[in-house]
Specification:
The structure holds 2 protein chains of 2 kinds. By secondary structure, chain A is an alpha+beta fold. Chain A contains 13 helices and 19 strands. Chain A has 3 domains: 88 residues, 2-Layer Sandwich (Uridine Diphospho-n-acetylenolpyruvylglucosamine Reductase, domain 2), CATH 3.30.43.10; 125 residues, 2-Layer Sandwich (Uridine Diphospho-n-acetylenolpyruvylglucosamine Reductase, domain 3), CATH 3.30.465.10; 190 residues, 3-Layer(aba) Sandwich (Vanillyl-alcohol Oxidase, Chain A, domain 3). Helix content of chain A is 32%, strand content 24%. In chain A, the strands form 4 sheets. Chain A has an 8-stranded antiparallel sheet, with helices on both faces. A 5-stranded antiparallel sheet of chain A has the order 5-6-10-8-9. In chain A, strands 1-2-4-3 form a 4-stranded mixed sheet. In chain A, a hairpin with a 4-residue loop joins strand 17 and strand 18. In chain A, helix 11 packs parallel to helix 12. The longest helix of chain A is centred in the C-terminal third of the chain and has 20 residues. The two termini of chain A are 29 Å apart. Chain B has 3 domains: 103 residues, no CATH class; 144 residues, Rossmann fold, CATH 3.40.50.1860; 125 residues, Rossmann fold, CATH 3.40.50. Chain B contains 19 helices and 10 strands. In chain B, helix 10 packs across helix 19, helix 14 packs across helix 15 and helix 17 crosses helix 18. Chain B is globular and about 65 Å long. The two termini of chain B are 26 Å apart. The chains are: A alpha+beta, B alpha/beta. Chains A and B meet through helix 2, helix 4 and strand 16 of A and helix 3 and helix 4 of B.
């Protein structure tokens, strides 16, 4: 079928205004804000309901044309840029907040709901509840974030965001609409089990297994008081101990680390950014006292937080995208590597070395996930979007960092193509065999974001 | 210097050196606290292309040569009311000031490359037509009849710069303003004004702008006036801000009518003899609000009118939803333009107000069009028209 015929069919499915193969749409959707090179797109569509997604998938199967689902398009690692051309499915029209369950504490939402939309909706209508909030800008979708194992506020306490999925509605590669989690059995989207857990197939698989159209995400009680407690230390060597002690208290809502050479006052220190919550100011003061003691004991210093800094860190989400302006170049990308805690000191030292090698100001950070079970570390590289050589430099730094993460026993998060291949090289052969088997069974025509997680 | 410009962006080159700095984080798409989508264009067209970031990336692609001009790309750049809501919510300081400037600069390039859309071309054709000198294609009025009707002098301390929309479309607003100025005993006159050039500046058709500015300045100077007052938010912004961008300075002060009303109220000089017992909501014109930072004076005035129950719409001040008329959208996309106003009136409905007021004849026009089209049953009037309905006197005038 010719492109114009395919466009007509897509227009028939989603409406004329919501399908395009105009040059400007193809250009914008052929890239993301990260350092990946653009790759061509054939069509962009914006469905409004699951049935339309099903129809698109059926058409893609018929025409053997790749489909790539897209949320906010903010992974920075090019996951929504087609590798083999095809149809980018922008999910933003599916933006209904369907249900908030105040007792079982979940939000049932469509896949195009943004994190900003959910945050705002809860603040205005259910002020006692809070959603998990990633560090991504508010235009990131909840679905996009949870499906890549995102993390953010509350992750120290409750684990990563994929862990907070209660249920999914998914369009499978054959066009079937499938429910996963308690919603497969019950009207309540309140839990993931106890039935065989297939939800994992759709997390961090980057749209290769299906297109999520609806999901239930856990919500949490909003505490009355919340405060940030800064500590700083010069030698990262003691980080595993201090983090273990902080989490052992059970008082921290979140714990982040930061190490960067700019602005100058931050150079030479690792900053510990711990959040405490409570029902009263007295409780908060007591928690701060406890944390101060732990800092002192571990050769770290408590830092009284200037109001300006405090308000920046209490904001949800933190304006992490500010990194794109560090060099007035409009670009940054990071390796977010999940690492075992004991290797964090080495990761900080060697991460800074990689930055310096590539002439980029070291900008490193971490977030604890589920206590000290996992720590995601961010090796961030700013670049000038207008300078192709600078972007290439950033890509090289990212690649070297991916190798470092794997060498330290970690796994790069939401990895771009080259990183995925590095992970696959280290992966247990039978894991790969199983993955390939499942994928081939589900998607014999290889239409689902092909090129990602490609087992050779 | 009579106008005000905080930071200037050199249209010739500067913008091309920094436009790539947009990361496309998307903060610009939302109101504060992410209550809603704030960009009329993004809300309508939905493709990322139509977000502020999408436009800036397209503009950079034209500079870098990745894309070439086409009607379709020009359409994306013109399908934006330049309301500036994105500038309020873009988080990149010292970059966010320029988002609207980037769009306007790119439109200049579009015109130079022959890609100005046909409908918008009518603005310059009418404005430069010696019979018109206004974007409505009306026969130019030298305002002599008005001067005679209201017994206005040729030379005066003030010039009331009426603006094309008030003079040719919202005559009641114009007349209400004249009656207010007369009542206030302001020594003012009218000039044979030509368009302030807002519509052609917004649409990138700038070739005759300097001539128009010089003409208007000469007319004002010939009247001997040292102060210019206008009832139009668009003229106000254009005279006070844009004229200076064209390197032309002037030696008169510029006021919006609301400044003068507020001054008299603050000085206790307006003595109301009647109440205006209505629930009113105020719509912030983009040209006065986000573009000039004037939010409180109109509200202060409304609060001081006896009986007025002023209620705010959910999106107000910096977050106010645009009426959809600006940036060439009214002429280029007439139906969509009224849709945007329709959304504003839906928002107004939730306040239970019976009157939607503003201080911009262009907003008044578009909101009235939507009011009629959607049978919304509001009274849409300018604040000066509210005053005009009331029995009041201005006392102790110097």
């Amino acid at each position: 079928m010719k492109n114009e015929e395919i466009l007509q069919k897509l227009e028939k499915i989603v409406g004329k205004d919501y399908a395009s193969n105009r040059e400007e749409e193809l250009f914008i959707y052929s890239q993301d804000p990260g350092a990946s090179l653009p790759r061509p797109v054939d069509f962009v569509v914006m469905p409004s309901k699951a049935e339309e997604v099903q129809e698109i998938v059926k058409l893609a199967n018929q025409e053997k044309i790749p489909i790539i689902p897209m949320g906010g398009g903010l992974t920075l690692s090019g996951l929504i840029i087609p590798i083999k051309g095809g149809i980018v499915i922008d999910m933003k029209r599916m933006n209904n907040i369907i249900e908030i369950n105040e007792f079982s504490k979940y939000a049932l939402i469509e896949a195009g709901v943004t994190t900003g939309q959910l945050l705002s909706f809860l603040s205005n209508n259910y002020p006692d509840l809070q959603p998990p909030v990633p560090d991504a800008p508010p235009s990131a979708t909840v679905a996009g974030n949870v499906l890549i194992h995102g993390s953010g506020y509350l992750s120290q306490k409750y684990g990563d965001h994929a862990n907070m999925i209660n249920g999914l509605e998914v369009v499978l590669p054959n066009g079937d609409l499938c429910k996963l989690g308690s919603c497969a059995v019950s009207d309540y989207w309140f839990t993931r089990g106890p039935i065989p857990d297939l939800i994992g197939l759709f997390t961090s698989s980057f749209g290769t297994m299906g297109i999520v159209t609806k999901l239930s995400i856990q919500l949490f009680d909003r505490p009355n008081y919340r405060e940030v407690v800064f500590g700083l230390m010069q030698d990262p060597e003691n980080l595993p101990n201090i983090l273990s002690e902080l989490t052992k208290t059970g008082l921290a809502e979140d714990v982040l680390l930061g190490m960067q050479d700019k602005p100058d006052w931050m150079k030479g220190y690792v900053f510990i950014i711990a959040y405490v919550t409570g029902e009263s100011q007295e409780e908060i003061d007591s928690h701060i006292k406890t944390f101060k003691r732990i800092y002192r004991k571990n050769e770290a210093r408590y830092m009284k937080t200037p109001e300006r800094i405090r308000s920046i860190y209490l904001e949800k989400p933190i304006f992490a995208a500010a990194a794109a302006d560090y060099r007035k170049g409009g670009g940054f990308e990071y390796v977010g590597a999940n690492l075992p805690l004991e290797n964090i000191p080495t990761a900080y030292k060697r991460g800074a070395e990689i930055s310096k090698k590539y002439g980029i100001v070291p900008t490193l950070g971490s977030r604890l996930i589920g206590g000290t079970h996992n720590i995601v570390m961010f090796f961030s590289y700013s670049f000038n979007r207008a300078d192709p050589k600078d972007m290439e430099n950033a890509r090289n730094a990212l690649h070297e960092t991916n190798k470092l993460a794997l060498e330290l026993g970690g796994i790069p998060w939401k990895s771009e193509l080259a990183g995925q291949q590095l992970i696959l090289e280290k992966m247990d052969p039978n894991y790969k065999k199983l993955f390939k088997m499942i994928r081939t069974t589900l998607d014999p025509n290889r239409i689902m974001n092909p090129g990602n997680w490609e087992v050779k | 210097m009579g106008g005000e410009i905080k930071i200037t962006l050199k249209v010739e080159q500067d913008w091309k050196d920094i436009v790539h700095r947009c990361f496309r984080c998307g903060y610009c798409k939302f109101t504060h606290e992410f209550l809603d989508i704030n960009c009329p264009s993004y809300k309508k067209y939905k493709f990322e292309t139509y977000s502020a970031g999408g436009r800036l990336w397209l503009i950079y692609s034209l500079i870098s040569g990745e894309l070439n001009w086409s009607d379709s790309i020009a359409n994306v750049l013109y399908a934006c009311p330049t309301c500036g809501n994105c500038t309020e919510n873009c988080r990149f300081d010292k970059f966010n000031d320029f988002l609207v400037d980037f769009i306007e600069a790119a439109r200049i390039e579009a015109v130079e490359n022959g890609y100005c859309p046909e409908k918008q071309k009518a603005l310059i054709e009418r404005t430069t037509n010696p019979k018109n000198f206004n974007p409505y294609g009306e026969v130019n009025s030298n305002n002599q009849d008005l001067k005679e009707k209201y017994n206005l002098p040729d030379n005066a301390e003030w010039v009331y710069y009426i603006g094309c929309t008030s003079n040719y479309r919202q005559k009641n607003l114009r007349d209400a303003t004249i009656r207010f100025l007369k009542k206030a005993n302001i020594n003012f006159t009218l000039i044979d004004e030509h368009c302030c050039c807002s519509p052609i500046i917004r649409t990138g058709q700038i070739s005759p702008v300097k001539d128009f500015i010089n003409y208007n300045i000469a007319q004002i100077q010939n009247s001997g006036a040292k102060k210019v007052i206008t009832s139009c938010a668009g003229c106000y912004r254009t005279i006070k801000k844009d004229w200076l961008k064209f390197g032309i300075d002037y030696d008169f002060e510029v006021y919006h009518t609301i400044d003068l009303v507020k001054k008299f109220l603050d000085e206790g000089k307006i003595n109301f003899k009647a109440e205006f017992n209505k629930r009113i909501t105020y719509h912030d014109p983009c040209h006065l609000g986000r573009h000039m930072g004037v939010y409180e004076p109109p509200r202060d005035v409304l609060k001081k009118i006896p009986g007025v129950d002023l209620v705010e719409m959910k999106r107000n001040k910096e977050n106010a939803w645009c009426c959809g008329a600006g940036g060439g959208v009214k002429i280029g996309y007439p139906e969509w333009s009224v849709e945007i106003s329709g959304e504003r009136l839906e928002e107004a409905k939730k306040t239970n107000a019976s009157i939607v007021t503003s201080v911009c004849p262009f907003c008044r026009t578009n909101l009235s069009d939507a009011n009629e089209k959607y049978n919304m049953d509001f009274e849409v009037i300018d604040i000066i028209e509210i005053l005009d309905k009331l029995d009041y006197e201005i006392i102790n005038i110097e």
